[in-house]
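Encode chain A's predicted structure.
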Amino acid sequence: MKRPAQPSLFASQGKTCSPATNKSYSCIEVAPRPAGDMSATDISAAAVDFPEYCLLSDDGVSVATSRQGACRIVGVTFTTYRIQNGATVTTGVLYQDAFLLTYSNQNSDFFAYQVGLASVGSSWGDATRATMTGTTRADGLCVTAGSSFPVQAVYPPRTMRIGESGYTTTATAPGASGICTTWWDVTYTVAGYTPASISLGMNDIRCDNAVGGYLQNPVRVGCVVPWYPAPVYYDSSRNPTLADHVRQAQASGLPGGTVTAPLYRSTDAAVERTNRRLACGNPPSIPGKNCDEYPLATTYNGLSAGGSLRSFPGCNISAPSGSGPLGASACMIAEGDNHAQGGIMSGFYYWERVLDWDPFVVTVL
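Encoded structure for chain A:
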């Protein structure tokens, strides 16, 4: 099964050096792993506090706890050099943690990218006398709506130096959807040395006008982190037969219960028909009950992806017990619960902007 990957690391890699002028120059590089000098008490910022989940970022990989924002940390090293008697001498090294936070709203065409850089106490020499400033740019389906990164000293350590920028999507036509890559180009300057610059980018936000309307709620443009598997909740007290089926299905090994093994939404009508036919194409006639399939028919995880049908005691479906992540289960559940599920999923897809191939999880309360 094809599963879209999380966005790749967007940051200039390797060491970039400025031209040597008057026998001095500077270099800068990005490393996936941060210097690690910051704690949860150090990550407040001007516009939006950097959330504590940023500290979970490892090897420069983005992390998220919702579809409203993503964060990652990389390490930045700025080094100053002088050429003395034909030899290159290191005159200072600045180590920084770079916090990259992008955040959005499901109901707005606007999103933001905030960068925070904090120097580490083990830095030394001329590099610690640097100032930094930044400019923003965007590639893809958005335009810059404003930014601010004034000239700031890199020291003292463990203090955030902040750049804030905003963007509006151009994916506003009906059915439009697209990613925008946003960048902060940060320049480091020390008197007597040529400046050096680094580019730090994020592409974790997708904006769209593709979810349509829902009941009295209008068609609207919005932006989310598409790779984060948002949870939809099934309440055992309100829809007990639905919740019981899903609980048994997940316990048998079928996916959708965790963010590491999510379901993937399908908007392909042929896939949905195949999933329904193979799971519930010939159910028994029981007054007050309907056939329910799990994984949902509106996913790429159903029987259209392979595997066999399974069921459970009390489900009134002629199918063997089974286990493992491939296949689907079927169960006769209360008609009211089955109808409620349709409304729950329609609202969930609308509010969380879950499009084709977007991951999500089903959580039974």
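The chain has a mean pLDDT of 91.
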